Structure formats: C-alpha cells, structure tokens
Amino acid sequence: MEPATATLQALTKNENAGLVMDFDGVLSRITEDPAASELLPGTEEILASLATRLRVVALLSGRPVSFLAERASIPGVELYGSYGLERHTETGIEVLPEARQWTRAVEEATNMLHHELDGVEGLHVEDKSLAVAVHWRRAPDRESATELITPLIQKATDTWGLRREPGKFVEELRMPLDQDKGTALQRVIETRGLQTIAYAGDDRGDLPAFETAAAAGGYTLVIEGPDMAPEVRDVSGAHFDGPEEFQSWLRQLNDALA
User: Fold this and answer.
1) Closest CA to 212 of 235, 238, 229, 239
2) Fold annotation for 14-96+179-257
3) What are the CA-CA distances from residue 140 to residues 4, 116, 123, 137, 170 (Å)?
4) CA-CA distance, 201 to 181, in Å (whole number)?
5) Comma-separated ranges of CATH 3.40.50.1000 domains in the chain
6) Are 247 and 43 in contact (CB under 8 A)?
7) Closest CA to 24 of 225, 249, 245, 233
8) Cβ neighbours of residue 44 under 8 Å, at least 6 residues apart?
9) Residue 21 gets which letter from DSSP?
C-alpha cells in the first residue's frame, strides 16, 4: 500500500487521531516575499471540516503564532508558532516560560541584523517574535549574499548565544533551548492523548517532528519543492509534489472521514 493511502486509512479508521502540519511550503506556496505567504484557496474550508472529524488538527510553524492567527484562524484548528514555543489560545498568546529569559538576546540580534542589512537589495530581515531570520531568495547574487550574511550570523551566535538554523535561502537565529518541532509535537501527542499521528512538513526544521511522528508509530508527509534539502527529500513516508498535491490529499482525507 502506498504511504499516502496508508496514512489516510489510519487517520480515518483509528480513534484519537491527529494531523499536524507546517504552514509555508505545505499549506502555502513558497514565496519570494515571506510576508506574502497565504493558504491556498480552498484549504481553509478543508481544514475547518477536518477539525470537526479528527481529534486534533494543528499548524506547527517556525513563524510567530500571530502570523498564523492572521492567515489561518480557523475554528477548531490549533496554532503553534516559533517551533512550538508559542501557542494561540482564546485569551491570547501563551509562551513557554523558559523562552522568556532569551527574549532580550533575540531583540539585540534582530536590531543588529536590521542595522547591517536593511536596504541591501534582495535581503529581508524577518522579525519572528522569539527568533529572527534573514532571507536572500530574492538576492540578485545569492553567493555574495551568503558571504555577507554568514559573518553576521556568526557574530550573533558568539555574542548572544543564539542557535543558528539554516534553511532554504534563509538563516535563522533561535533560542538555544531544547525545544523544536519534535518536542512540540510530542507535547501535542501526550496532552491530547493521540493514538495516531501524522505530520506534514517540507524543510530542515521539520526533521525533528518527522522523527517524533515515526517514533510514535505515526506517519510522515513530505511536501517537496524547489531547492529542497537532501536530508528532507530522503525522509521515508508519503511524498507530495508541492502544496497543491497535498491539498488534494487533504480533500480525499476529508471525504473519507465524511
């Protein structure tokens, strides 16, 4: 049986099943401007329906949870931002206590990067609440952009103790906490009593969540795209050719659950 079909059947037949997904590159196309990322048309309706039929439907992103709330505030869909350090609740944003001691370091690194890189063609410094990222997908010369960015990222890690996380034409600085998408997914599994779990992602930041899903006897859903990291492409499980194909699978899942 193909992995995509096996995952669909498991989520359909088993009780206490959950589906957790990244946002960018999974439910949204990768965009040159990170601020332009948005759900594919029709996805909101599918997720709203799935949320009434599965124990858990959640988004788990490296983006701030406020970003997710602006673009995917869907009844029944749980939102986790900053790799799980933030959770959107009815009363506001809930932050893991251990993250608070690092907020000043993130602020200072963010200010430094803005000072050095704002105005450089094709570069974008993204404030991510509990992290900061530099994007250079739109840089006219990506090699030169890398040479400019690399020492600044090193300075931030040396000066403020932040952790470097590379991605697809992006360098991210995160808090040096033993927290990632894998630990966040494990919390969701445990707190919600999930017996069946599937996780969908597309980048290096999703690797810990893939590992957690597999360790729990669950399922991995890999959404492929341009400039994909080899280690992500090599993840075993169901593979989809872009967000559009994954959206089609979500629709099949919703129809099967109905």
Assistant:
1) 235
2) Rossmann fold (3.40.50)
3) 38, 18, 9, 9, 15
4) 10
5) 14-96+179-257
6) yes
7) 225
8) 72, 74
9) E
Residue whose token pair is 């997908």: 137
CA distances, 59 to each of 39, 71, 149, 151, 203 (Å): 12, 11, 30, 33, 15
**CA-to-CA distance for 55 and 76, rounded, in angstroms?**
10
pTM of the model: 0.85
Distance of alpha carbon 194 from alpha carbon 16, whole angstroms: 5
Structure tokens at 42: 């029709």
Q: In the chain, pLDDT over 90 holds for what percent of residues?
A: 86
Q: In the chain, what is the straight-line distance between the N-terminal and C-terminal CA atoms, in Å?
A: 22
Domain 99-174 bears CATH identifier 3.30.70.1020: yes
Statement: residue 218 has pLDDT above 90:
yes
pLDDT digit string (tens) for 94-109?
999 999 899 999 999 9
User: What's the DSSP call for residue 16?
Assistant: S
CA–CA dist 249, 130 (Å, integer): 32
- In single-letter form, the type of residue at position 93 comes to I
Q: Per this entry, what is the length of the chain?
A: 258
Cβ(188)–Cβ(20) below 8 Å: yes
Q: Which residues contact 215 (CB under 8 A, 6 or more apart)?
A: none
Structure token digits, residue 132: 């900061």
State the span(s) of the chain assigned CATH 3.30.70.1020.
Answer: 99-174
